[in-house]
Every structure is written in C-alpha cells, then in structure tokens.
Amino acid sequence: MDIPLIGITVLWIFLYGYLIVASIDFGAGFFAFHGKMTKQDHIINDLISRYLSPVWEVTNVFFVFFFVGIVGFFPKTAYYYGTALLIPGSVALILLVIRGSFYAFGNYGSKDNRVYLFLYGATGLLIPAALSTTLTISEGGFLEERDGTIVFLAKELFTSTYSWSVVFLAIVSVLFISASFLTYYADRANDQNALSLLRKYALLWAPPTIVASLLVFIGLKGHNLRHFNNAMDIWYMFGLSLFFFLAATWLIYKGKKYGIAFIFVMLQFFFAFFGYGASHLPYILDPYITIYSGVTNETMGITLIIVFIAGLLLLIPSLILLLRLFLFDADYVKGKK
Amino acid sequence: MAELDSVLLSRMLTTLTLAFHIIFATIGVGVPIMISIAEFIGIKKNDEHYLLLARRWARGFVVTVAVGVVTGTVIGLQLALLWPSFMELAGQVISLPLFMETFAFFFEAIFLGIYLYTWDRFKKPIYHWLISLPVVIGSSLSAFFITTVNAFMNTPQGFSVEDGILVGIDPLAAMFNPATPSKVFHVLSSSFMTCAFILAAISAFVLLKGRGTDYHKKALKLTLISAFIFSFFTALAGDLSAKFLAEYQPEKLAAAEWHFETEEGADLIFFGTLNEEGEIENEIRFPKLLSFLAFNDFDAEVIGLDQIPDDEEPPLIVHYLFDVMVMIGMYGLGISLLGLVLMKFKPKFLYNKVVLWLIVASGPLAMIGIEAGWFYAEIGRQPWILRGFMKVAEGATTSTHLPIIFGLFLVLYLILGVICVVVLRKIFRNNPAEAELERRFK
C-alpha cells in the first residue's frame, strides 16, 4: 500500500469511529431533551447520563483527530476547504461549542436547567446536519475557483436535493444508531422501562434510515455519476450493509440479543461508510484534490504513520480500560457504583 | 482595502478565540497537577481535608475543561478556516506535533473520564491517585506539543524552500527548533504557577469572608508553597526566554525593551512612555542590565531596532505587555515568598486581612500575566506568521464574510464566559466544604 492510501484509510477509520460514538452522543442528547419534554426523563435520563459522563470528552477527540489528520496527510485540503468552508465550518463550530459547554454546565452545574438541556439536545441534531454538508461538498459542484481564490456556492448547496438527502440521512442515522446502542445499554442495566421506550425509538428510526440511504443513492446518481458508477462496482459492500441492517432490526424487533444487534448496526454503517469512501477515491475533493495530488511530502507521511501506530499502542489499552470500567462493568451500568 | 480588512479580521478573530481559550487551557494544564498533589498528600497523611480538596477542585475543573476542549477544537479548525494558505504551507512541517497533540489529548480525555468517576471504586485509594498521573502527563504533553508548533512559527527550521516548494523536510528538527526549550519551559511553569495562585486566591477569599475553616487554611498553605516553587521556575524560564530572544529573535526583544540603537552595555527600560518624536520619557532605567539579561555579561552587545528592516519591525506597544508580564511575575514570586516566610515564622499573621487580600489579587493577576505574555509573544513576531518565510497578510483567508463570523464568536464567548462563572459559583456556593466533609467522610 502507498502512503496516500494508508493515510486516507487511517483517517476514514477515525471518521467512522467518530460517526459511531458521536451518533450515540448526539442522539442521546436529543433523547434526553425529548424525554424531559414528554415527562419521560425519569425513565431514561439517568441511564443516558451514566453512559455519557465519562466518555463525552473522548467523542470530541475523534473529531479533532480527523481534521488534524487530514491537514497533516493532505495539506492541500486545508487550502481548499479552509477557504471555502468559513461559514458552514464556523456554524458547525459554534454548535459544537454550545453543545459541549452546555453539556458540562447542565450535567455538573445546574441540573434540570431546561434551557441548557434544550441547547444540548437541539444541537445534537444540527451538528450532524452541518458536518454532513462537508461530505456533500466533497462530491464537487459546490466550490469554484475564481481569480485564484476559492468560492463556496452556498445557493447551490441549499437548493440541491442531493445535499438535503445527505442531511436527512445524517439525522435519522444518528437517532437510529443512538437508540439501538441505548437499547443495549438499558438491557445491560436491566432497566425494563428504559428498554421498552428505547426499543420503540430504535424501531421507529429504522425505516427512515434505510429510506434515506436509498434517497442518497438516487441523489448521487444525479449529482456525480462517476462516483455512483464506482459505488455500483462494489455493490456487495452496500448489500452487506443492508443485510446487517435487516438482521439488527429483526433482533431488536424480536427483543433479544441487543448486544449483537448493536454490533450489526455498527457493521451496517461500516460497510456503507467504507463502500462510500472507497468509491469516492481517488478524489478527496472532486475534482480539485485527489489523495495523490494533495498528499504531504513522503518524510512527513511516513513519520505520521509511525506516530499513528505508536499512538494506537497507547490508546487501545486505555480505551479498553475505559470500556471495561464503564460499559462492561455491570454494577456501574446498573448505577450501583 | 477588502483584502486588508480580511487580514485584520482574521487576526482579530484568532486573537479573540486564543485569548478566550488560553484562560481555560492554562487551567487545563495547571489544575490537574494541583489536584494530583492534594490527593497524594491526602492519602499519605490520611487527611480527608486534602482528599476533599482534590475532589472539589476536580469538580470545578471539569466545567472549565469542557470550555477548554470546545474552544480548543475551535482554534484547531480556525487555523485552517482563517489561515488556509499558511496551513497549506506549514501543514507539511507541523502536522507531526499537531497529530501528537491529539494523541496526548486523547490520552488525557480517557483518563480524566476514568478519574472523575472512580473515586470510590478501588479498594486501595492509591490506585485512584495513579489515574491522575496520565491526566497530568496528557495535559502537559498537549501543552508541550502545541507549544512546539508556536515555537516553530517563531524560529522555523527543518525544511528548505526551492522555487516555492518545501523540500528536505525534517519533522523532528522542526519540532525541536531553537524556540522550543525556553517556550515549553515558560508555558508549563507559568501555567502551573497561575493555577496555584488562582486556587490560593479562592482559599484566601473564603478566609477573608469569615467562612474559612481548617480546610481552607490547609488549602492556602498547600497552594502558596506550590505557587512559590512554580513562580521560581517561571522566573528562571523567563530569563532563559530573554536569552533565547537576544540570540534568535533580537527584533522581538528590542521592541519589548524599546532598544533602538545597537550598543554594548544596553540599559534595561522599565515603564515609560514614547513621545511624539519617538523618544522615551518617564522611564526607569537600569544601566547595562539588558546586556546582562540577554547574555549574562554587562558589556555584551545587544542588537537594536536599527538593524531590523522597517517593514519587519514589531509594534512598539509590546513594551507595555512585557512590563505587565514581568511585574506580575515578580509580584507572584514576592507574595508567595512572603506567604512562606509568614508560615514559618509568624503563622498567625498569614491570615491578616492585608496579606489575604494580596493573595486574592494574585489569582486574577496571574491570569492577566498569562494573557499579557502571550500577547507580547504573538504581537512581537509581527509582521511574520512564519518568521522569515511568510507574512501574516499572505496567510489569511480571502473570504468576505468575516465580520459576521467575528460577531457570532464574540457573542458566543461572552455568553459562555458569564455562564461558566455562574455555574462554577453555583457548584460551590450552596455546598460548603465542611458540610460536604460531614456528609462524605463522617
């Protein structure tokens, strides 16, 4: 494998990691707020907070890792995306700031403050929407080079059906991933009330997820035929994704093996996400940057890969410790510790 | 003009974000070590006052960490959003420390989560204390890596330019550039020092208000001793930084010292103003001291601004920032030394109103010192963004949407700052230490 390919694979893995952990986090924030509004907070909010409290900061790092990494491996992206994305990027940043701070304010300071919970819950759906536009832009057609500077075509983005189908997919996926994880978590906590509510949410958000995925495919065909055709070449990736989706939903519907069901949900998104990523290659930003034209110099590429491996050796044991203490520790999950 | 505006606005927005972030970043670097020290003493002495100190500091800390994390994320992305050309160029050399900083941050984030939620989960308390170590290491390493990036911007090395293309890149040489040692030393020691003073100020304030107990007295002593040690190292780091500047960035030192003519036996100038002819008035002059500070030799030659091309001269305003920073550093060293002397010889007098007020002042002052120091360091390298290679104006975005973005972030930080203070007050106000001690340990 060559350096650009390793680089983009590493980054894609981290983006996938962020997709999963952030979806759980974003969705949980929304469910917590929704629970409060519909007076069901006594059922699920303790459970949610028990999961989120020790891990919210880690979630954020996945995101930082991705954008630091992409500038590191592909410095040219900084120029193109940086110039063009000032407005959408800043909006996403402001939402992230609001969400992170008000989580802490609400959770450690003023518990039961509705405004804090609202800001935390609402941003949970707006952030995925804002971030997903970056993926849309990477398909091309929303940036233009004029007089040596990069112009972002906001109007095109806002009126594109493809763009809206991606936003729609991002939001419903967040709710689906989050609900299926929390169902599993409630099951482990042996909390029947929370389980039955969250299971309903998971089943509720399953059909829109698959509908949205189809819409994105149709939209992609209209927007970027090259990418669509590449995707068709690896149709089995998407087939596997669909298979795992059906299996996961069936398990949740039958009310058994929630852990396996959640792993299936992760696999569903794994195949969809990597299928999408692989068919996008070699472009990072169609048609301006490919992983070969935008890659950093070789020395830096190799150094980054070495550091990445060393970093993983440090992180993986730490993450396992974190999971063992808070996710796989039955007493903690049940609220006894 | 449009281009000039976007450069200025990019600078203003970066300044705004960094000035806000640095408050929380400093707390993020300095407070973990204080928490760790308090818990260690608590376990060793089997003294629940210290254990409670660690817990309460940690509880306030987590709120500030949240704001620090999110504003750190902002500046990380703003680098690319506001300075795309700079990142495209420098990104090829500085990705390594940026990448490693994320790992350090990751490490810290994982163990901070564990630390905060495992207070009573281990049979032996020392196991819990051990978890504080990765937090301290992670936060200090983050500071280290990110400071090397800033150091690189001041003294770039580890690459060469051929026809506008960077070649011969050596990531380690770029990281360990001449500015790195003194900068890292100064950043770490001053963060530790500032946090020790802030925590000392809180204890002193409670004692002043008459709500103080043995718990607060112990807190005051612990923080003052730490503050003295850290102040000493900060002063040492400051001296090393001046020597570094004299050798590698003479224009920054010269601007800070209003040292216009290159000469041997240069005077150190304290305070003062510039009149309209650009002459110094109302100053306090220490003969030959600048030469000594710069080279440990009263007669050494110090390069003045006359040797620097006019369009590469930093703004002279940095002199005031330099003075503020140094004065506050001296004040901190003095006040913590006074505290130590009183503790040893006149323990009662430590709780005298005047002394307590002086300590209360040290907290906010130290944070002002941090801000002044960073403003000095950053404005002092104008007009360069990458000293010797790229000027600020060449690195900035060309977007025309900056005014609204600047406004949005300004409002955001104002609201966050206010709510953060409100929330922190609320956490501690209605939950005095003694009551919590009663509840938790008795």
UniProtKB/TrEMBL annotation, chain A:
Location(s) in or outside the cell: Cell membrane
Quote any Pfam family the record assigns.
Answer: Cyt_bd_oxida_II
* Record membrane topology: Multi-pass membrane protein
- Give a yes or no for keyword Protein transport in this entry: no
Q: What keywords are assigned to this protein?
A: Cell membrane, Membrane, Oxidoreductase, Transmembrane, Transmembrane helix
Q: Where do the TM regions start and end?
A: 6-33, 54-74, 80-105, 117-137, 162-182, 202-222, 234-253, 260-279, 299-327
Query: One MF term from GO for this chain?
Result: oxidoreductase activity
Enzyme group, top EC level?
oxidoreductase
Entry EC number(s): 1.10.3.-
Assigned protein family:
Belongs to the cytochrome ubiquinol oxidase subunit 2 family.
Q: Please identify the protein, giving its name as recorded.
A: Cytochrome d ubiquinol oxidase subunit II
Source species? Bacillus carboniphilus
From TrEMBL, chain B:
The root-end lineage is: Bacteria, Bacillati, Bacillota, Bacilli, Bacillales
What the entry lists under Pfam families is as follows: Cyt_bd_oxida_I (PF01654)
Name assigned to this protein: Cytochrome ubiquinol oxidase subunit I
Predominantly, its location class is membrane
Tell me how this protein sits in the membrane: Multi-pass membrane protein
Question: Which residue stretches, if any, does this entry annotate as coiled coil?
Answer: none
Q: Which species expresses this protein natively?
A: Bacillus carboniphilus
Show the PANTHER family listed in the entry.
CYTOCHROME BD MENAQUINOL OXIDASE SUBUNIT I-RELATED, CYTOCHROME D UBIQUINOL OXIDASE
* Annotated family: Belongs to the cytochrome ubiquinol oxidase subunit 1 family.
